Amino acid sequence: MTSASRPPLRVGMIGYAFMGVAHSQAWRTAPRFFDLPLRPELTVLGGRDAAGVAAAADRLGWADTETDWRRLIERDDVDLVDICTPGDSHAEIAIAALRAGKHVLCEKPLANSVAEAEAMAAAAAEAAASGVRAMVGFTYRRVPAVALAARLVAEGRIGQVRHVRAQYLQDWIADPAAPMSWRLEKDKAGSGALGDIGAHIVDLTQFLTGETLTGVSAVLETFVRKRPLPASTGALGGVGGEGMGEVTVDDAAVFLGRFSGGALATFEATRFALGRKNAIRIEVNGSAGSLAFDFEDMNVLHFFDGSEPAETAGFRRIVVTEPEHPYVSAWWPAGHGLGYEHGFTHQVVDLVTALAAGEQPTPSFADGLAVQRVLDAVERSAADRSTWTPIEGAH
Amino acid sequence: MTSASRPPLRVGMIGYAFMGVAHSQAWRTAPRFFDLPLRPELTVLGGRDAAGVAAAADRLGWADTETDWRRLIERDDVDLVDICTPGDSHAEIAIAALRAGKHVLCEKPLANSVAEAEAMAAAAAEAAASGVRAMVGFTYRRVPAVALAARLVAEGRIGQVRHVRAQYLQDWIADPAAPMSWRLEKDKAGSGALGDIGAHIVDLTQFLTGETLTGVSAVLETFVRKRPLPASTGALGGVGGEGMGEVTVDDAAVFLGRFSGGALATFEATRFALGRKNAIRIEVNGSAGSLAFDFEDMNVLHFFDGSEPAETAGFRRIVVTEPEHPYVSAWWPAGHGLGYEHGFTHQVVDLVTALAAGEQPTPSFADGLAVQRVLDAVERSAADRSTWTPIEGAH
Amino acid sequence: MTSASRPPLRVGMIGYAFMGVAHSQAWRTAPRFFDLPLRPELTVLGGRDAAGVAAAADRLGWADTETDWRRLIERDDVDLVDICTPGDSHAEIAIAALRAGKHVLCEKPLANSVAEAEAMAAAAAEAAASGVRAMVGFTYRRVPAVALAARLVAEGRIGQVRHVRAQYLQDWIADPAAPMSWRLEKDKAGSGALGDIGAHIVDLTQFLTGETLTGVSAVLETFVRKRPLPASTGALGGVGGEGMGEVTVDDAAVFLGRFSGGALATFEATRFALGRKNAIRIEVNGSAGSLAFDFEDMNVLHFFDGSEPAETAGFRRIVVTEPEHPYVSAWWPAGHGLGYEHGFTHQVVDLVTALAAGEQPTPSFADGLAVQRVLDAVERSAADRSTWTPIEGAH
Amino acid sequence: MTSASRPPLRVGMIGYAFMGVAHSQAWRTAPRFFDLPLRPELTVLGGRDAAGVAAAADRLGWADTETDWRRLIERDDVDLVDICTPGDSHAEIAIAALRAGKHVLCEKPLANSVAEAEAMAAAAAEAAASGVRAMVGFTYRRVPAVALAARLVAEGRIGQVRHVRAQYLQDWIADPAAPMSWRLEKDKAGSGALGDIGAHIVDLTQFLTGETLTGVSAVLETFVRKRPLPASTGALGGVGGEGMGEVTVDDAAVFLGRFSGGALATFEATRFALGRKNAIRIEVNGSAGSLAFDFEDMNVLHFFDGSEPAETAGFRRIVVTEPEHPYVSAWWPAGHGLGYEHGFTHQVVDLVTALAAGEQPTPSFADGLAVQRVLDAVERSAADRSTWTPIEGAH
User: Fold this and answer.
1) CA-nearest residue of chain A to B303?
2) What is the pLDDT of residues D371-391, one digit of tens each?
3) What are the backbone angles phi and psi of residue D334, rounded to the nearest 5°?
């Protein structure tokens, strides 16, 4: 089947910063390596600044631009809206897009509050009735090593889960001189490390274990409460200018959790772990085996098979680049690793495949809401002397 | 100075299981590699079973035996009592020995309760007035990589501590068929993973940071509540026999903590982490650098120096076998690593050195009490919906 | 500058197997992340099978196709010919293309013999006089960690090079049942592991050290001399069918070498290292420091700085994802690693940049010839009882 | 059985530097952890300097001293002579001791020349006829991870061996200012890195594979030909004084080899690998699996099982501290690692066990001679343009 013979999937994307760049690469690349049932078209890019969005569209390969997201979602030539804006606008855009009959891919976290996330999940459920689909962008699920880990858990290779330890460690604001950004303002970002990176490890551990968190006990901390206002803005960096701004979100979040199957969990999300750049570390110990992953070595999964005789038992360093591994056969020969952006390409593959099949892509907005409820419980526990706080709706 | 010209230090040791074997090796070995100011003599070994203690004394190199610990501590030819029994007897023996004017080295945890530990610390303080010394055996402080880490922290190489994450992961009872042992009975062991191995990481992190824990939020769990009674007994293993016994201690403990300087901490102690054998993992992130250690690779310390330019910054894998490293110059050339037992030898070295100098060896009973208070707060928090629980006496 | 305002660079690519796919991705992706002075156009794809090349062009994004490479290189709308065919056709195509005034990017190894490579280098030198450029595709030079290593060597950070150890370990034909392929036939591939993967480590070590190999002593081996003929063909794999074919190339090559600055070197290239998938391992020890790299962990460079005090000296695990690192600032935030294909994108970037500047891109055909001479000396030494064999033209 | 009821094995040891210290610790420690059939007694220590040997005997635990090795080997109260002197005296002492009816343990390398080694092996064969035994001290065979590797090879777990790569990397004279020592003088040490550390990897790879090297191609190098004479002497270090001495041995040796079963091998022994302290790295790839070991992480063996499905195949990091592992059950619980000196203790265990059983301990002097013949072939190849040089007596 040639690409021309595949039905198009016309995409309108809103936002073109870090996430917009990653999504664009995925939309462009997925059909080059995978046999997609639909042919993605980079139809229109949305952004408030006309010059900025035009330059980005040219750079990133989008055919047209809009400066008003409402116009973008109403366009007849848009089948799917891809939301890459900060969290404070997710709910409004996503709900409007779904009501306009457009499929939606929304970056994580789903929203800045449980109330918004509930409204979004409700809108998604309503839209699903007429075949309109919504998906939230927890792309780390699509790292092949992570997908392999989930497969091994599902196959029972580690047995009953007893321990989950999850860390998301960064250091990009460890320096008190690092400037303010929207990610440090509560009204834009909703929360700090908790929602930005903690959300990922909450989703990943629920995905890997196939279980849900039922309660948490938490502490939040803001180590640096005032920072220089930025002289210029960058993706995650920038340079400090004159004046100081107030950091209104957490710098770090630590919490204990309990999974629905009884496992104990520890979570830590911080932007203050000097020397750790994007260390998503997850280890799961079960009654029959263990799994360990670190995104700083993203093409590797460590697996301990408890059924192996003690003489030769040990964590196996699986280089997850074999054709037998999830997503890998479309890419390169064994040992030729993938990078960060490939998770986004796999996200497009799974989304497009589900849309063509008329099925619900995962993670759904309901999955995103589940994460939001955990984040909310974390904040409430932290505000109430770390008291154990059940997760609403979990079981 | 020949060995004969050094004053003797006549040791009476009580208990000859796992810890007794390790202590014996240390007493025998320390004077062969270090210039000790006193000459340790393995004078007498105590144990209840006459045949057992005699065989052990022969094997381990002790000159004489006693079957009643009270007689042992009263002997005129004993200068120091080394207590290697389970925790339920520590307080009684240690206090009696101190009152009998004997120096005491007591295995960890100091005691099975805060009340006992307080009495022991009081007895130690009283004894110190007359030059009688007490020390608790947190030997992991004497792993060269750990001692180097503490030195780097003290020198300010990592700045202000912001994060501590500590895990002590084992798997020796992950199998529900693993039999009962005294370590699984509350009246003998006091607690389970918490006191046995969690105590180590509480002490280590307080030692490394030079700070104290001021509060905790905790969850404890017993995954397997009934186990086969042992057909035979072994150090940590054994084989199951007929009948079942009740596990009355925790299998795993997870807790959050706050250090006196403001750092956030996560702790996890478990015997159910399949594939992890004795993984004491500690990472400390500060404002100027980070340190990471794993006892499964015990001759290595990882150090991130935040003052290094980004181009060449990275965690350094320091092979801690150079003459410049703590304790190492007495041993082998660079790259020729040490093992588990060397920590005990270093403990003897530090203890003997302090005794000869008339100084307080560390960790003191007060340090052991501080750990006990943390363990107690952990248990109270776990029993009270993980509510944040301040550590008594911490500041 | 918008993309439309940049002069086009119209590319004709010949071959669309493994390398063709990688090159296509690079041509498509480079302008999306880098500010290229020229705008690459995927003008025409060449391949002998009309249906095959048409399907590939559709999949890979090429606007047109040719089934005769001679027609492709004569097209007026082609500025650069990208040669992704097996090595036996490199010389003929590359020389013809250069004589037709087209820039050439030729996959490695440059040729199947020194004679061919000499002719190619001569043609390249002649073409350069009229501004037509030729480059050979040793892409691993453009892995950021490798480029950083070369920079550190050039800056003198490791001092005088004393040892080079280089291994390229794969295992894709370790199984004697793995079928025949053109890569196992001497008349198509020139040599086996030696030219296919050994060529990479010869080039990489010459690139990293900035020195040339002056002599070698070698052994070649073919472990499995007959293999099943393939029932179907695949990139590197396939399934065995009926009948047996003869393997006429080496399965493995090991050789000693001496670099122009006096360093000793060991080289090993094999397709029989079970469990090693694409392990390009290079370690360089100098008088002032050391560097180590393994492509199976491609975003990391290990650097030992000999000027560091012994107390804190150790190999630094540099996660080569900082904006300060080569090529990285165009991509993602720190810690978000790149993959195999990014080296090809960087190759396009460097090639296009050099073309626009009227400069010679590297590695040149002369560099490719230098590698070919080493491979030739390896074969001659192996055929002459491993006798030390000087490299022609090296100094 | 009490220690008193075991027959004694009265040891006379000659030499008390680095190796003498290690051997003493082994003689003292072995009976404390293993049920030895004989009871080692540290009867007499030999050394030329009366004061030095007396101090050493006191420190190391030897009951008596001799300043003339000839007197030591003639003593009636000596059953076994343990030779820890530099290689130039091995032959004379060992042959005399064997002829005096004493068992001999001789440090490696067996001798400084093939002729000496042949005479020693002949003397050992002659002595064996009357039950007198000789063993050479390649202790790295007794690192549990190495012994486990040999066991797995013998069990066929890696199939037919195809590749051996062995490196012994140190850096203690990488600095040109490091002073002279006897290890850098040909008449005392025989050779440099080749005999000192290269001998170990020759023996280890022959031991691990159960095969012998049949030929080599080699290059030797002395990077620093003049060094300061030592102001003081130390084990391996010391400080430079006035005047310069000539280094008459190799600083580094690299060679290719072929094993009797057809495997290709690369060897590298150097004291100039900055940052590598005692990195004995051995990897063996077979038709069914692979093994990898690095002494800098000595309690770990990496094993790739080629029979594992690709989905979960990977090198297993076996922490070699389980009771099922060689030598380990005598020591500590799982995860509590051993150190450098334990190999010497295991050597004593195996030697004493063989003596009591009237069996030949391994490695024998014939094994030591086999290593010496490889070293000799390496030197001859290096002196003859690296020409392939068969190993005398190998098959």
Assistant:
1) A275
2) 999 999 999 999 999 999 999
3) -50, 140
Question: Which residue's structure tokens are 């080899």?
Answer: D257
CATH number corresponding to A143-364+370-389 = 3.30.360.10
* Domain residue ranges in chain D: 3-140, 142-364+370-389
Q: Is D318 helix (H, G, I), strand (E, B) or coil?
A: strand
Q: Which of C252, C289, C315 sits opposite D163 (nearest CB)?
A: C252
CA distance B229 to C63: 76
Enumerate residues 6+ apart whose C-beta is below 8 A from B359: none
pLDDT 10s digits, B135-193? 999 999 999 999 999 999 999 999 999 999 999 999 999 999 999 998 999 998 889 99
CATH of the structural domain C141-364+370-389, one choice from 3.30.360.10, 3.30.70.270, 3.40.50.11930, 3.40.50.150:
3.30.360.10
A109-132 average pLDDT score: 96
Strand partners, B259: B213
- Do A140 and A280 form a contact (C-beta atoms < 8 A)? yes
pLDDT 10s digits, B82-92: 999 999 999 99
Q: Residue C390 and residue D246: Cα distance in Å, rounded?
A: 29
Domain D142-364+370-389, second-level architecture: 2-Layer Sandwich (3.30)
Task: Determine whether the interchain pair C276/D270 forms a contact, defined as Cβ–Cβ distance below 8 Å.
Answer: no
CA C172 from centre of chain: 19
Please answer whether residues D4 and B8 qualify as being in contact, where contact means their C-beta atoms are separated by less than 8 angstroms.
Answer: no
**CB < 8 Å to A273, chain C:** none
* Per-residue pLDDT tens digits for D127-138: 999 999 999 999
Q: What is the C-alpha separation between B108 and A263, in angstroms, rounded?
A: 28
The kind and range of the H/E element at C82 are strand C80-83
Q: Which helix (H) or strand (E) holds C193?
A: helix C193-193
Would you place residue C292 in the very low, low, confident or very high pLDDT band (cuts 50, 70, 90)? Answer: very high
Taking an 8 Å cut-off on Cβ atoms, the answer to whether D310 and A317 are in contact is: no
- pLDDT for the residue C395: 60
Q: Per residue in A54-104, pLDDT tens?
A: 999 999 999 999 999 999 999 999 999 999 999 999 999 999 999 999 999
Count of all residues that appear for chain B in the document: 395
Q: Which residues of C touch D252 (CB under 8 A)?
A: 162-163, 264
Q: The domain B3-139 belongs to what CATH superfamily?
A: NAD(P)-binding Rossmann-like Domain (3.40.50.720)
Asked if residue B376 lies in contact with residue B253, where contact means CB atoms within 8 angstroms, the answer is no
Report, as an integer, the average pLDDT of B20-40.
Answer: 98
User: pLDDT band at D2, cuts 50/70/90?
Assistant: confident
Residues of A in contact with D305 (CB under 8 A): 312
For residue D91, report the phi and psi dihedrals to the nearest 5 degrees. Answer: -60, -50
Subunit contact B338:D339, Cβ cutoff 8 A: yes
Q: CA-CA distance, A78 to A66, in Å (whole number)?
A: 12
- The whole-angstrom distance between residue A382's C-alpha and the CA centroid of its chain comes to 23
Place of tokens 């040909």: D186
Q: C291, C303 in Cβ contact below 8 A? A: yes
Nearest Cβ partner of D339 from B55, B296, B337?
Answer: B337
Burial state string for A80-98 with b = 16 or more CB within 10 A and e = fewer than 16: bbbbbbbbbbbbbbbbbbb
- pLDDT given for residue A238 in this prediction: 56
Query: Can you count the helices (H) and strands (E) in chain A?
Result: 11, 17
Q: Residue A242 has what pLDDT? A: 77
Q: Which of A143, A147, A155 is closest to A289 using CA atoms?
A: A155
Q: In Å, how far is A368's CA from the nearest CA of chain C?
A: 23
* pLDDT tens digits, one per residue of C159-191: 999 999 999 999 999 999 999 998 999 998 889
Give the contacts of D51 (CB within 8 A, at least 6 positions apart): none
Residue from the list A163, A273, A385 with its beta carbon closest to the beta carbon of B272: A163
Q: Does domain C3-140 have CATH number 3.40.50.720?
A: yes
